[in-house]
């Protein structure tokens, strides 16, 4: 029974990527089973056991001499470098090379592949070295059988160059890679499984190119292990050639997972080492380890990315130190929390993509090895990421930086660490008393603790408590002006017991409103606002309660603060607004709340505000891949071409292909035409004759000039850019049939109110309109849109709702007196025209129910609604229009009546209806 310890992870110490399970090694098994006494003696005396790698063992039966040659006894004078075997052979170890000096002066050497430390059942420790070749100078050995050292892309190129004919195979692989990129120019748009299949097919093609080389095949026949090195070298070279295309495809496939993971790590950005129970002796290793692992996205090969993780772990264990006694002994339980912390603190936006690349595209990994060093490193990184994804760190855990409100220095010196279990004040008081020499806890600390727990009653009791009047003479001072330590302590103690207010601050500038907003205690926030708390109070970091609510994603608290007058554009010391922080942490609900509240209250939210680094909220959303937030920001005027101080735009900062495509669409989107704000010159029409000169004696002569253009009306034009944007948002809501939100844009009440004395619910006569104005309970403010407002093409909300067939919305708009005779600017279409074009009989009935509906209005071609009913061969619709006063004898600009069109459509039933309603037309 033994316990293995994984060691030697640093690149400089590990001389090859070779790994094997020594417990399955024939030499090691024979030593433990057939020569148990020798093995026991070696473990008891602390001797070093050398085990030749499995492919280098001699073919003959192993003897005692073979085992004696591989057990090393340290020298008393130089136990680290000088040894002797049980056969009295002198051995030297230098730079992981074992050297044996023969009698004839010749030297035999072999390298140490790796070392492992084992423990027996009696917990006796012994060291095992896996070596390249047996320690026997009489055995025939060639350099060709040695293991190649592959750690970098350069090592891979050197191996392929030296073991093959050189330039020829590189030219062929380059041609294969070039053809792959040309053939798969849309590679990143493929599903993940197809991407993996195509890359694996390219790998097999490149490997076949190498294996066709005669020199390389000969080398492989001599050294069986060389084939694994060749596979790794080919894979690494291929990955380097296609990396830019490949990583784009992978990030496109993992975009959703990356965005979700990014939101988790952004909300854990305040986590500290103590929160993860990391050993204090590992704290000083964090800067270098973080530097190493943060370069993982700089490498184009799996080999390079694994090297980053290896160097990171080596930095944690301090394996590169010259004094081995100063190194850190770490277990897996120590290692994983450190990697979790480093992953959170490294600002990489696509961890899932990098992990997927390392796991799924490592084709050269031998399938007959359960786990090797590379697998251990990848698995460790994966375990850390999965632990973060599980959400265990976000739920009940609270960063230590936000837990303590008392003197931080005293708590740090006392090794006090708040825990989640301390949910009641009694426990808090006991702990504080224990570590603060049983001093009385300050009233401000009590207030903050009750605010954190959401106990509104106790918060109110403390804030409304009458301040105790104490005479300064009661203080035990040496003299009134004394400032010695004892007197200062007495004064501070008195001040700590004074009554706190809503404006009282701790040493970080926190007020009770900051604490309540930070923890999302909506009732406490409402209470302290009622008691006069300053909504724009800033702490030492420049953060207001609104900043903390946005950072933590507390939408209700955020809205309450905004309603109470919190400044929406207030910045912290780093220049971040609440929108920056909500976007950076992926809180879409808070982003929506800020934007929509600004639209309703017109707070002049600067959606393109930049912080001290020149980053706008869109920069952060693009970096972390929050697609829905990006769409929201773009829809409300965010600039995708805005450069930060590093001259980087949100488009260049895009996390993945989907984000880049979304931003690129807005970059190349045609600029909005604002010139329609200036009234255009209307098309000249013949003036209508005065009533005394009315010659409408023969209805067959009625045309566009004397019928349809009487009282033609157009929609209300937006007055400014803000209204233009609101119209665009309104029409988007109409498309989704969001009736409640549409009402808010028009300033309408949630209940439809119709005057009791109205002719009928949809009447639009002058009397009913006047009554509606008087009975409307909620007047339209300057921020609300006119119900007849239109876009650049002249389409009103009623036009859009009619075209989409939203019956309830059309009814609502008509009920609130939307003008049903407004025409569009170019095609001169009324809502009735659109309804007839779409054969929507129910909406036509709604429109006709209003007495003011002009059933004979003509569009730019002269067609009436009845013309469209004839074109669509809709008999019921034509019958309804005729009963409502439609005139079948009206001609369009081509001289055609609706009857002509019905005859052209060979619609006998429609012809019968038209001739029955207007027989005089046949004359």
From TrEMBL:
Question: CDD domains given for it?
Answer: ANKRD27_zf1, ANKRD27_zf2
Q: Which residues form the signal peptide?
A: none
Q: Which domain of life is it from?
A: Eukaryota
GO biological process terms, alphabetically, are: early endosome to late endosome transport; neuron projection morphogenesis
**CC annotations in GO:** early endosome; late endosome; neuron projection; plasma membrane; transport vesicle; tubular endosome
In the record for this protein, the ANK repeats are positioned at 508-540, 541-573, 574-595, 613-645, 793-825, 827-848, 861-893
Q: What Gene Ontology molecular-function terms does this entry list? A: guanyl-nucleotide exchange factor activity; SNARE binding
Q: Give UniProt keywords alphabetically.
A: ANK repeat
Q: Where is the VPS9 domain?
A: 255-397
The residues that cross the membrane are: none
Q: What is this protein called?
A: Ankyrin repeat domain-containing protein 27-like isoform X1
> Which species does the entry assign this protein to?
Diaphorina citri (Asian citrus psyllid)
